[in-house]
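Quick look at the format.
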Amino acid sequence: MTRKEQLLSIINKSGSENEAKTAQLVDEIIFIEENLAKLKELPFIVVNSKNPGIQKATPASKQYKELLQQYNNCLRLLFRITGEMDGTKEESPLRKWLKERTDDKGDF
């Protein structure tokens, strides 16, 4: 099973009607995963040969950090679209609190 099939199966399990919207998102996630794998092979820190105490982050480390942030945001968006946040279908505590207040009094 390819990575794309895995991600699409997550969407199909949730019964999401947004499959067309998520198809592009799945492609973006796969693209980012491939680039992250390539960046992992590069050095992230350059050490000064004369003074090993001096170290500098490489452009690869900066790109990795930025891509990882985009990757995490894409996954969060995918979970929101499919209705599964953090792998569960629970409501947030704030939404529960708000529903309790509006259902009891009706004028909140």
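Next, a different chain entirely:
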Amino acid sequence: MLPGYSGKRNVPYFSPIWVEKVVPRKTGRGILTVGFINLLYAEGVQDFTFDLRVLKREANYLVSEILYEDQLTQDRTAIISYIEFEWIQRFCPDLWAAHTPSFGTVEQGSVSHYLQAIFRLPA
């Protein structure tokens, strides 16, 4: 997400999320309702549901504007993509240091299984 929660300008915020639902709003304006679990939210793991306006859609990622219900919230852009172990290692170093995957385990071969094991997410 850009901007994130720290800094005065454009310090991004990175967190793996577990997408639970995506519902097109059928407005003709490219709006989706996305429900997800934010795994590294500062106040602990939490469920969120946001409307997003799609700005760019590619095979491996989506760039969107977060549409907040209150107009006082700062404009933010979210990028949602499939993540790889290298992404976690680079953007979530504390998570990586605490839970480095072991070679030869199911968690090492799949980011989804890795996150399910750490955060006890639904299958």
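The chain has two domains: 1-82, 86-123.

See the schema section for token definitions.
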